[in-house]
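Collaborator request, handled under Task 6.
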Amino acid sequence: MSRLKSVLLVDFDNIYGATSEEVVSGLPNWLLWLEDGAFSPKNRRRRFIDKRVYWNLQFDKYRPDFERAGFSAFNCRALAKRKISAGKSSADIVLTMDAIEIALVNEDVEEFVILTTDSDFVPMVNRVQAGDLRVVTCGKETDPTYELFSQYADAAIHVGALKAAFSYERAKRKWYALRAPPPQIAPLTFQKERRSALMGRVRAALDTSEAPKDGPPPEALRAVAIIKELGERMPDQPLSKSRIVRALSVIQEFSPTYQAGLRPWFGHKNFAAMMRRLSQMQPAIEVTTMGKNKIETIWREPAGAPPPQRVRPPEPDDAPEARELPRERRPLALLAEAAKSAELPEPAELADGAETGKANEADETEDAGAEALPSRA
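Structure tokens returned to the collaborator:
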């Protein structure tokens, strides 16, 4: 099987920070490790037709080592003063432009190997893959970057395997074998690198101390109700920390700082720990970790729940005594039933009664005239 024609692009500032200085001393070893395809289960070998490394000016001292290995080194100094003082560089944008240019110009390229753990390169990975090119990236097991690049890239190298490759040696070929045996792939070490034994005991102690004895305390239930009220006003929208703290300040047992006889955050370590505990009590409170001690809180309306109805405030009543009470209106159906049950006279009877009434009135008039004549005489 022919070797893949690959291009190797190294974000040195990122890889140096994720590994150690051995990335320079072990350069021939991990470069041979990549060529042998030790990170790939299929063990597809490759040949690098172009190798480039991008770094800040402070790492230019490693230029001779990389040039001996066939690399082209690029100084990517930042232009803004605040970025220069922070030790940042413009390597990301320079690497991205070179990758797009190589993908468009060089028709012999079949694969890109981009050594970086920066998730900002995901759009660039998608753009290069649009040209039917294979892309291999790198990621840390101790944060979501490895899982993220595993979803978007064709292959992902975990940092633990890259560290092991600093001392890589190609296995010798047996005299009766056609090629050397495939190298062993370094296993993933999620739990080992993510959590030490000491920190595991510390977290277990914190979880035990924060666990409720007889159910959640009443102040926590009230805090959940307040956050629910805030979230129903802004569903599916992030609730800021200041907004939540200001709303919870009405609870007597709540304080964001240490006070006399009162622990902050309902006795939790910090704001993030308090919100995670409230999220366990009310799953509609969605808490997402954004960084170290940084979270995003969003109220998610439960599926099938009716939207909250807003109560209209009563209109101002300046003169209640002048207001007319509305008359009670009877439904038309009741009026129709009452009309059917009523006994109305027939038209003929009504006419006879009218004539009889007129005759009675005439008789009464004649009697009154007869009584009046003798009195006059």
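The cover message to the collaborator said: "Residues 347-376 form the longest helix (30 residues). Residues 197-299 form one domain. Please let us know whether this matches your experimental observations."
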